[in-house]
Amino acid sequence: MTDTVAPPMHDDVRARRAVTILVWAQSVLGAQMPVHFILGGLVGAMLAENKALATVPISMTVMGSMLAAPIMSMLMARLGRRTGFLIGALAGAGGAALAVHAIGQKDFALFCGAALLTGIYMSGHNFYRFAAADMASPAFRPKAISYVMAGGLVSALLGPELVIWFQDAMEPVPFAGAYRAVIVLNLVGVLPVLLLDIPPPTRRPRGERAGRPWREILADRRVVVAMLCAMVSYALMNLVMTSTPLAMLGCGFGTPDAAGVVRLHVLAMYGPSFFTGSVIARLGAPRVIAMGLACLAVAALIALSGIEIEHFTAALILLGVGWNFGFIGATTMLAGAHLPEERARVQGLNDFLVMGLVTAASFSSGALMAAFGWSAVNLAMLPFLTAAGAALIWLVLREGVRARA
Question: Phi/psi at 54 (nearest 5 deg)?
Answer without folding.
Answer: -60, -40
